[in-house]
UniProtKB/TrEMBL annotation, chains A, B:
GO terms for molecular function: metal ion binding; prenyltransferase activity. It comes from Emticicia aquatilis. This is Isoprenyl synthetase. SUPFAM superfamilies: Terpenoid synthases. PROSITE patterns: POLYPRENYL_SYNTHASE_1, POLYPRENYL_SYNTHASE_2. The lineage of its organism: Bacteria, Pseudomonadati, Bacteroidota, Cytophagia, Cytophagales. Keywords: Magnesium, Metal-binding, Transferase. It comes from the Bacteria. Its cofactor is Mg(2+). GO terms for biological process: isoprenoid biosynthetic process.
C-alpha cells in the first residue's frame, strides 16, 4: 500500500467527520483547525503500523483520526498559552474567535478524540484508553515543562530531551503503538513500535531546532532564526551555553540573549556564527542521528517482512530528509 | 447505608488519590481545587444509585470520583472564562497561579477523569465512555450557550431551560446512570435514573436562581442578589421581561439593566420589588417544583424497594430544602 492511499483515506475521514452541531462557536473552530492542513503524520503512523501486520488497515482510520484530533486540541490550547497569532499561516482560534472559544472548543475537541477511540474493538478498548490517558497526561506535562523552561536559566540538555520526549515524541510513539494494538501485534511488537516512535520523534524535534537556525529560507516556510530571536531554549542554545562556558562566545551569546533592542537579522547572524564557532550544528546533527538510528533499529527488530515495513520506512526517511 | 458512610468513602478516596507528580504546576491545582470542599453531590449520586441494586457499592467509588474530577475540571476552565476571582470562598486557580496553569491543569484533569473511569468492568467500559463523552460534550455546549446568552436580548425560557439542562443537569443524570450501569441495573432502570437526575438537576438550578434573589443572607453563603447586579439572564429575569412586556415594570427593569452606575443594594431591592409585583417568585417555584415532582416520579417508577431508594430520596430532599 502506498503512502498516498493511506493519506487519502485519512483525509476522506476528516472531511466526513462531524464533531457536533451547535452552538457553532464550539464546533466550527474544530473543523477550522482540522482543515488547515499539516502532514497528518500521526494518523499516517497509526494506519501504517496496523498495515504492517494485517491487510485490513481501514479499521485503524477512525482511531488514527482520534490521535490527530488530540494533537490539534493541544495546538489549540498551546496557541493560547503561547499567545501565538498564526498556526500554519492562518489566524489561531483564539485570534479568529476569542480566548474563551479556544478554551472551550479545545475541551470538547479532547472529548471528540476519546469518542473517535471508541472505534477500536471492545477487547482492546480499555488498554487503548489507559495508554491514551498516560500519553495525553505526558503531553500536558511536556507543555508545562516547556513553559517552565522559558523563565529558568539552569535547564540541562537531559531536561530538554525529556521535555521534547513528553511534549511531542510520546504521541508519535502512541500513534504507532495504537496501530499495533489494533492489529493485535502482541506486546513486544507494540513496544518496539512505541520506542521507534519516541526515538524518531525526539530526532524530528532536534531536526526542527536545527532547521530553525540552518534551514534554507526558500524552503523552510517559517522565518529562519525565529527561535534565536525569541531566545527559545533549544538544544542548540543549551549546548552552546554549556560547551562555551567561560569563553568569549558565551559572553557574546549572553549579551544577545539579554539585549532588549536589536536588529533581528543581525542577532540571527551573530548567534549562528557563535554556534558555528562552537561546532553546534555538527553536535546537534550527531545527537539527532543517534535518535534516528535508535528508532530505525527498533523498527528493524520488529518481526515483520521488509516489504510490510517499507511504507513506514519511506515516510520516516521523508521526514528525516525534509527541509521544512 | 447512610449518607455519611457514602460521603466518608468518597472523601477517603479523594484524600488518597494522586493525580500525578511533576511538574507541580500541573498537579497541585488539581489537588487544591478538589480539596476546597463542596457537597460532593455527583459522586454521592453515583454510589447511591449503585447501592439501590447491589450491596457492593464500593466498586462505584473510583468512577464516582471520576465524575467529581470532571465537574471540577469544568469549574477550573469556567472560572477562567467567567474571570471569577473566587471559588468556594478561595482564590480560583487562574488567580492563585495563572491562566496558562489553569488551562493546562484543567486539561490534564479531564484526562484524570477518564482514567478514573477505567475502574469500571471491561464489559461496560465502552458504553460508559460513550455516555461520558456525550455528557461531557453537552456540558461544554451548555457553557457555550450560557456565554452566548450574555450578549443576546432574545433568550427564551425554553432556551434557558435547555442551557441549564446541558450545563448542569446532564452530569447529575450521568452520575446516577453510571451508578446504575455499574450495578448492571438494566436499560429501563438506568434511563429512569438518568431522567431523575436531569429533572432534579434543572430543579436545583432554578432553586439557585430563586435563592440568589430570595435567599436568607445569613444562610446563603454568597452575596444575595449577585445575579441581579450582573444582569445574569436567569429564569426569573427572563420570565419578568416576558410577562411584564409593555408594562411600567418592564421599563423599570430595563432601566436597571442598562444602568451603568448604581447602588448595588438599591438595584437588588428594586429588581426584587419588580419580581414581587409580577409574582415571579411563585412562578419560579411552580416551575422548580414541577421538575422536582417529575424527577421524584421517575425515581418512584424505578423497580426497587423503598428501603433501597431511601438514602437517595433523603439526599434529594436535603438538596431540595437547602438554603444555600
Amino acid at each position: 500500500m502506498s503512502l498516498e492511499v493511506f493519506l487519502k483515506a485519512i483525509q476522506t475521514e476528516i472531511a466526513s467527520t462531524k464533531y457536533g452541531e451547535s452552538p457553532v462557536e464550539l464546533y466550527e473552530p474544530i473543523e477550522y483547525l482540522m482543515s488547515l492542513g499539516g502532514k497528518k503524520m500521526r494518523p499516517l503512523l497509526t494506519v501504517m503500523a496496523t498495515n504492517i501486520f494485517v491487510d485490513d488497515w481501514q479499521k485503524s482510520v477512525k482511531p488514527a483520526l482520534g490521535v490527530e484530533v488530540f494533537h490539534n486540541f493541544t495546538l489549540m490550547h498551546d496557541d493560547i498559552m503561547d499567545a501565538a497569532p498564526l498556526r500554519r499561516g492562518k489566524p489561531t482560534v483564539h485570534e479568529k474567535w476569542n480566548e474563551n472559544v479556544a478554551i472551550l472548543s479545545g475541551d470538547v475537541m479532547l472529548v471528540c478524540a476519546y469518542e473517535l477511540m471508541t472505534a477500536v474493538d471492545d477487547k482492546i478498548f480499555k488498554h487503548v484508553i489507559r495508554r491514551f490517558n498516560r500519553t495525553a497526561a505526558e503531553v500536558c506535562e511536556g507543555q508545562q515543562w516547556d513553559m517552565n523552561f522559558a523563565t529558568r536559566n539552569d535547564v540541562t540538555e537531559d531536561e530538554y530531551i525529556n521535555m521534547i520526549r513528553l511534549k511531542t515524541s510520546v504521541l508519535l510513539g502512541f500513534a504507532l503503538e495504537l496501530g499495533g494494538l489494533i492489529a493485535e501485534a502482541g506486546e513486544e511488537a507494540t513496544q518496539l513500535l512505541y520506542d521507534f516512535g519516541t526515538n524518531i520523534g525526539i530526532g524530528f524535534q532536534l531536526k526542527d531546532d536545527i532547521l530553525d537556525v540552518y534551514g534554507d529560507p526558500e524552503k523552510f516556510g517559517k522565518q529562519v532564526g525565529g527561535d534565536i530571536i525569541e531566545n527559545k531554549k533549544t538544544w542548540l542554545l543549551l549546548k552552546a551555553l554549556k560547551i562555551g562556558k567561560g569563553t568569549a562566545q558565551e559572553a557574546e551569546l549572553q549579551a544577545w540573549i539579554y539585549a532588549k533592542e536589536f536588529d533581528k537579522d543581525e542577532k540571527v547572524k551573530a548567534v549562528r556564527a557563535i554556534y558555528d564557532a562552537l561546532n553546534i550544528r555538527q553536535l546537534a546533527e550527531q545527537k539527532m542521528n543517534a535518535f534516528f538510528d535508535k528508532g530505525l533499529a527498533d523498527l528493524e527488530k520488529l518481526n515483520a517482512s521488509a516489504e510490510r515495513k517499507q511504507p513506514l520506512i519511506e515516510l520516516t526517511k521523508q521526514l528525516i530528509e525534509r527541509e521544512s
